Amino acid sequence: MVTKKDIRSLSLLGIETFFKVNGQKNFRVQQVYDWLWKKSCRSFNEMSNLSKEIRSLLDQHFSFPVITIDTEQKSADGTIKSSFLLDDGLRVEGVLIPSEGRTTACISSQAGCPLACTFCATGKLGFRRNLLFAEIFDQIALIQEQSVKFYGKPLSNIVYMGMGEPLLNYENVRASVEKVIDPGGMGMSPQRITVSSVGIPEKIKKMADDKARYHFALSLHAARDDKRGQIIPVNQKYPLKDLIKALKYYHKVTGKRITIEYILFRDFNDGLADASDLAVFCKNFPVKINLIEYNQVENAGFLPSEAHTMKVFQDFLEQKNLVVNLRRSRGKDIAAACGQLAGK
Ligand code: SF4
To answer: What is the mean pLDDT of the chain?
Structure first.
């Protein structure tokens, strides 16, 4: 049996060649491309301005695998967590987070994750596979529909902070961003997209060389190698000095400020000595720091910091003239908060 090629693996030129070979008019090419990437359609049948014959021609030659929403849970604070079913039966999760003036999609880049950070529920699942760029795109398109349905507006922001390490699936992440920012696709501004990573130095340099226009956030969580290595095992392979070097290069090439994500764990990384280490790390390049409230994960062995400790930590950094935001967690009651995605 001949396996049909996924229609969404074709470029605009690929569709053009196919139509030319099959004697179809050239204006059909843009129509199909629009259905795929602008209208995020989910089957050939939906392509209503194409004749039945053309739809059937496409169906004979191409497959059109899409992901679907398996379950949808709504939090008391309006956050919606979706479990997405992939074509091969695996599941990943994505979250819609409404906040004042914004609706943000948090999406997954891998099924599971190989990096096994100790505080993270996804890390306990192990790694299954990288997502294809169309699977990443589908999550965004489906959460976009939820945003319009439940909150009456399209997505304002996208964060690649769900399941998986985006930079270990760099090419698919990059290709999905391209479709989202393409005026012939969703047409979203790259300024509204953030890719978050624990830091893979060669990929950070690659992002710079590729002139990435989206934002980059580093999940730092500890600014000393001995401490960071305890919670993020890959830090042993890529110590902070390598990350600093890569981030300096990234800043030099792109001119962009780096977001530093820092989850506060009680009595582990929330003391003033830790804040001081963080301040020293942040002097290497322009940054914005997001301090994040920890959401407890079963058997992880960490507790969230006390509110007053978080405030003291924040004040210390602000006294060092650093830009700091304190991020409260959203969707905790449905395990949709940062680090909690594990298919529950
Ligand atoms: S924190 Fe991110 S990189 Fe670490 S295990 Fe979880 S999903 Fe993977």
So the answer is: 94
